Amino acid sequence: MNVRTNLMLPEELVEAIDEVAGPRGRSRYVAEVLAKQVQRDRFFAAAKATAGAWKDHPWFPTSESVVEWVREGRRDRYDPWGDDPDR
User: How many domains, the chain?
Assistant: First the structure.
């Protein structure tokens, strides 16, 4: 269910939104952008709240071991911008 709300936005920002979304797509566009930002804000809040939780984990005795683990994981992942999907 949608809820009607009233937002005060700078005129230049509304004009820019309308260029991208069109005047009839403004609400949908703003809702999608705000939903993405809320998700991002929640992610960073969770990351901050759990920072250091694995500080003494036996898999990662040093900072270098963490970096190597991340690099190994990235090597194993499919890169849609660089890999050929038919390989």
Answer: 1
pTM of the model: 0.62
**Tokens coding 27:** 């609400």
Non-local (6+) Cβ contacts of 30 within 8 A are 7, 17
In a domain, 85, yes or no: no
- At 23 the pLDDT is 81
pLDDT at 85: 55
Range of the domain at 62: 11-76
Answer whether 16's CB lies under 8 Å from 30's CB: no
The tokens of 85 are what? Answer: 């999907």
Exposure string (b/e) for 48-71, b if CB count within 10 Å is 16 or more? eeeeeeeeeeeeeeeeeeeeeeee
